[in-house]
Amino acid sequence: MNSEARSLVHDFLENSAELRPDKTAVVHGEVRATYAQINSMTNELASWLLSQGVSAGDRIVILFKNSIEYIVSYYGVLKARGTAVPLNCDVKQDSLDAILREIRPKAILATGKLERILQETSSQSRKNSLMLISQPALSWRSDACTVVAWEDVVCGRTIDNPRLPISESELASIIYTSGSTGKPKGVMLSHRNITSNTHSIIQYLHLHEDDIQMVVLPFFYVMGTSLLNTHMAVAGTVVINNRFAFPACVIEQMATEHVTGFSGVPSTYAYLLHRSPLALFRDRLTALRYCSQAGGHMSRQTKEKLLQVLPPHTKLYVMYGATEAAARLTYVEPDHLTSKIDSIGRPIGGVTIRIMDEKGNELSPGVPGELVAQGPNIMLGYWMDSKSTSEVLDENGYHTGDMGFMDEEGYLFVTGRKNDLLKVGGHRISLQEIEDALMATELVMEAAVLGVDDPLLGAKLVAIAAPIEGKTDGKNVLARCQTILPKHKIPSEIRLVNALPKSANGKINRSGCRELLNSP
């Protein structure tokens, strides 16, 4: 298939439906849907949205967990020339109210499980919105909105592709950041942002129509979106499993469905290594061609352990990116992973990354500075937030906020976040370095280090970690750290918990960690 000819996100689905109509596109539980079926459903939705007056740029909120309904919503909105705004189904009412007021959606597409919380949001925040709800059960007569049942719209009619004139520069999606360290921001991504990144990912992962991707990451998360788009583009198969809390069932399905690709964030792999039967299934994962990791820093120990436990034919791709980059910026070639184990790799096709100082000067190899990225995948900006946009986008590109350096071979290394450098007793300390040391003790499976106000030192280091074994003692963990770190970098205390707080995309929630530390 000539993917290079495509320029719009929904073309991925339409082209695959034309070339491989009877191919299984999605597996979810007992349901198997072909490309023709998925495309037909998206056309029904797009036709309905257009009949309701949806026009170019109208924001359409999507509130479905990973499902066929989510996929139909995402591509259906794009076909109608709308802007898809996927949200976390676990969003709290106050947060949902704030986002709806900011987005001013033309329509809200939602699971019936969220009907109550939607009804309890401020009527002002969803004023004049269309509400398409799966199996609605409540009365909406007193509300100033129109409520329609999903089943009355997506019901098996045959409708042609809309084929609307859409520019690749038009806004395709607004994806909200997790907000774990502040107010969530709406990242504006054009069709070109998403498609250019999709093509690059397909190229370096060598994806093709025989690939079967196990998806445990949420589609509303930018990495989840990239898993969907890349496999729709090559006419592959997406296997949805929303039960990662029970990792054994995920691994079992990977074996039975002959999954070729699995993707996760660091905590995903920590749980697979330490709280799942991954090692026992090693010989049954005969089709598993690769695993990929992004979504934050993963420790050297976790990477090395994965290389030992994964089947010998399975390649491990360590990747780096950001929501603002439509997902991906760099990757480490699997053949170079052991020699560049601490690197985030080199830029993907179409992307350039420079190490720059605060004045915008490019720095030489080995000299630390901020990673600044350029490419067709870089966002248009933050929705309704010109101040935050100007802080990260300028003539040099996207300022990632990550500090690091480039070696002589062009491999990039991240040493920590710009705002994670903490001054303790006169020393500037990288929290990532301390977290890596905790992981290096091989006593914990995940860790976070926070700065806490201290009257003498200005700030002190406090760690929160999940031990690999329940009998682990915090004193032993800190004692091992003393063999790795100088005294001034040793946390003054550590709290051991069963699991660290996570955002819905699986990343460690630092705000949640702080709340946990402050709790009795």
Automatic annotation (TrEMBL):
AMP-dependent synthetase/ligase domain ranges (all copies): 13-383
TM stretches of this protein: none
Gene3D superfamilies: 3.30.300.30, N-terminal domain of ligase-like
Residues of the AMP-binding enzyme C-terminal domain: 433-507
GO molecular function, one term: ligase activity, forming carbon-sulfur bonds
InterPro entries for the chain: AMP-bd_C, AMP-bd_C_sf, AMP-binding_CS, AMP-dep_synth/lig_dom, ANL_N_sf, ATP-dep_AMP-bd_enzyme
Keyword terms of this UniProt record: Ligase
Leader sequence segment: none
Name assigned to this protein: AMP-dependent synthetase and ligase
Organism of origin: Pelobacter propionicus (strain DSM 2379 / NBRC 103807 / OttBd1)
